[in-house]
Each structure stands twice: as C-alpha cells, then as structure tokens.
Write a structure and sequence with these properties.
CATH architecture: Orthogonal Bundle
Protein name: UPF0397 protein Ldb1710
Number of domains: 1
CATH topology: Arp2/3 complex 21 kDa subunit ARPC3
Structural class: mainly alpha
Order of helices and strands: HEEHHHHH
Helix content: over 70%
Membrane topology: Multi-pass membrane protein
Keywords: Cell membrane, Membrane, Transmembrane, Transmembrane helix
Subcellular location: Cell membrane
CATH class: Mainly Alpha
Family: Belongs to the UPF0397 family.
C-alpha cells in the first residue's frame, strides 16, 4: 500500500490543481449530449479514473469534486453539490483500489484490469444513484423517474468510458513505468 497516496504532498497538490484544470477542459470540450436532459457522455471520467489510480483517493476525490464544481460554474453558472460530491467520491472509490495496485511500478495485469473495472462500475452505480439521484430528490425535489433515468444512463456511459478509455490509459501508463526489479546493476 502506498501511504503517500493519502498525503497532500507538493506532488499531490500539484496533481490536484493540474488535474482539476484538465478535468474542466476535457469536461468542457469532450462532452457529448446523450439526449436525456443534463446527461452527457463524459470522456473526462476516464481521465479521473487515471488520476485516481496514479495519485490515490485524496487526489481522486479532489480532482473529481473541484473539477466538477468549476465545470458546472463555467457551463451553467451554478453548481449541483450532490453531483459534485458524486464525482469526487467516484475518484475517491477508484483511488481506494489504487492502494492495492502497483501501477507506478509498471504493474497492471489482466486480473487487475478486471478488478479495476468491477470497482469502477460499482463505484459509478453507488455515486450516481445514491449521491446524484437521491440527492436531487431530497435537495431539489426532482421527480424520481427523471433522476433515476439520469443516474442509470450516467452509470452506463461513465462505466463504459472508464472501462474502455480508462483501462487503455492505465495500461499505457503502467507500460511507461519501469517495472520493479527490471533494472540490474552490471
């Protein structure tokens, strides 16, 4: 377990700031409308998954939350706190799995990819249904049918985005790292 993933070291603070900015940019320019109101196909969640896997739950939460707040303010002039927290907790839950994987040491096996995708699908369902939908019903008096439709589509789209693009990004990242024990002194 990499205990540095829990700390707000200068490296993690930089990752938090840069990651939040990238979240806003990708969220702004790589968002495809789904046809369901206020629900888009968001490529940014593959980036969030990658950041959470590299830097852990603290940075994952921060990038998801801060990035989503800034994106909402930029796009709509207001924010929906329950959905912002949902994005943050998505990064947090994926980051928790990162504590069990040595991706910085070039390890991301097929088994780890499968577990990663199970984790992210479950995390997507939890955050979008519980925090997003239930939050909208409680805080904004939104109709259940509407918010559960949004949560279902969001879970499906974000889960697929992370499964395909997120897994590819993580495999490429792991492949760029020097594997532990691969360098030998001659």
């Amino acid at each position: 377990m990499n205990k540095d993933m829990w700390k707000l070291s200068p490296k993690n603070i930089a990752a938090l700031g840069i990651g939040s900015a990238v979240f806003v940019i990708v969220g702004r320019f790589a968002s495809i409308p789904s046809g369901l109101p206020n629900t888009n196909f968001e490529l940014v969640y593959a980036f969030l998954a990658m950041i959470a896997m590299i830097y852990g739950p603290t940075v994952g939460f921060g990038v998801g939350f801060i990035g989503h707040v800034l994106l909402d303010l930029m796009m709509y002039g207001q924010t929906w706190w329950n959905w912002n927290f949902a994005a943050g907790f998505l990064g947090f839950f994926i980051g928790l799995y990162a504590l069990r994987v040595n991706i910085d040491q070039g390890e991301f096996s097929a088994k780890e990819m499968v577990i990663f995708n199970v984790v992210q699908v479950v995390a997507n369902a939890i955050v979008w249904f519980l925090l997003g939908s239930v939050g909208d019903m409680v805080l904004n008096s939104e109709p259940a049918a509407k918010v559960f439709a949004q949560a279902g589509l969001t879970t499906l789209m974000d889960g697929l985005t992370i499964a395909v693009l997120g897994t590819i990004l993580l495999k490429l990242y792991a492949g760029s790292r020097v594997k532990k024990g691969s360098l030998h002194k001659d």
